[in-house]
Amino acid sequence: MTPITESQIARARALIDPIFLGSPIVRQTGLDAALGCSLALKAETLNPIRSFKGRGTEALMASLTNRPTHVVATSSGNFGQGLARAATTRGVRATIFSGEDDNPGKLEAMRQLGAELRLVPRGGNAKALARDMAAKAGALYIEDGAHPEIAAGAGTIGMELAMQCGALDAVLVQIGDGALISGVGSWIKATSPKTRVIGVTATGAPSFRASLKAGKPLGISPDTIADGMAIDLPIASSVDAVAAIVDDVIEVDDEAILDAMALLLGSASLVAEPSGAAGVAAIMQNRKMFGGLKIAAIVTGGNVRPELLAQAAGRADDRASRATVRRAEWDSAAAL
User: What pLDDT, in 10s, does the model give residues 124-179?
Assistant: First the structure.
């Protein structure tokens, strides 16, 4: 049995604000040629928070029978945006604990969506502070990855992939807290068991990968540009859920992620934050594994730091320049 059932995902879909549903599939012949496979990209960046996280936060807040007056959570940005929007549109106060050096754009977006931010110095225990505040204020503490409604909301992406793409050889899914792959993987395994569900982690965030190997949560401090995957200690139930549906896990380093961001920008005009490009990075680092296959990957978010976007744009320009030189050389050789 999958961790999240088809009925749970179907119920979640009925609760989610439609603005987060039905995200498009992007296909580009240039991407297929560069990667050596047939790639369907699920673009989760064309919604009010430019991230898939709105699906899970909508599903959770809409499912609460005893609606709280105040919710508290931790987030580096995308989950906090989703929770802030889902809470404040329902008249619920939202307080988010974030790192003081988190992406400034994401911090400001949370504020604009109505969240009260509490910034925690580097090395501080944001989760402990958030739990303590929730207990003292009588608020509901919400932890991303701990609520099945969040995974079910994310699972609607799997439902849509099945409808939009048909049979697939593999689906690549980023692993951060585990909710996304638990939900997507549950739908895929229930409806297309031959399709491989492959998790993607950042090399600089090995905690979840190590926890899967050990069969229990292991805490390891992350160091990666992929802040959406920078988990230091996964939840035990999330480790179990991911282990039940994942076929393989691939790790990608920051250089590969930047190259993938550049490829998406140059070949598909898609702006992806580092975590959002991780699925494509996994294909770039493992071309033989995916050669000739029908693959789906999820661009999970587009809230990228300006300096990282500039680096990706520079790499995209370099890639285009090299391609122009190669074409000129081919044309010259053909003319001889």
Answer: 999 999 999 999 999 999 999 999 999 999 999 999 999 999 999 999 999 999 99
Residues of the chain with CATH 3.40.50.1100: 6-47+147-313, 53-141
Q: Which of 273, 80, 252, 44 is nearest to 154 (CA)?
A: 44
pTM of the model: 0.93
What tokens were used for 49?
């928070």
Residue type, 170: A
**Predicted pLDDT of residue 87:** 98
* Domain 6-47+147-313 coded CATH 3.40.50.1100: yes
Pairing relationship of beta strands 25-26 and 38-43 according to DSSP bridges:
antiparallel
Q: What is the residue whose two structure tokens read 């608020």?
A: 139
**DSSP code string of 183-211:** HHHHHHHHH-TTSEEEEEEETT--HHHHH
**Rounded CA separation 10/21 (Å):** 12
Q: Residue 92, CB half-sphere, CA atoms under 13 Å: how many? A: 25
CATH fit for domain 53-141, picks 3.90.1150.10, 3.40.50.1580, 3.40.50.970, 3.40.50.1100: 3.40.50.1100
Q: Where are the beta strands (DSSP E) in the chain?
A: 25-26, 38-43, 70-74, 93-99, 116-120, 140-141, 170-174, 196-202, 248-252, 294-299
| Residues, the chain | 336
Task: Render pLDDT for 37-50 as a digit per residue (tens, 0 to 9).
Answer: 999 999 999 999 99
Q: pLDDT band at 322, cuts 50/70/90?
A: confident
User: 26, exposed or middle or buried, with CB in 10 Å at 0-12, 13-18, 19+?
Assistant: middle
Tokens of 50: 């430019």
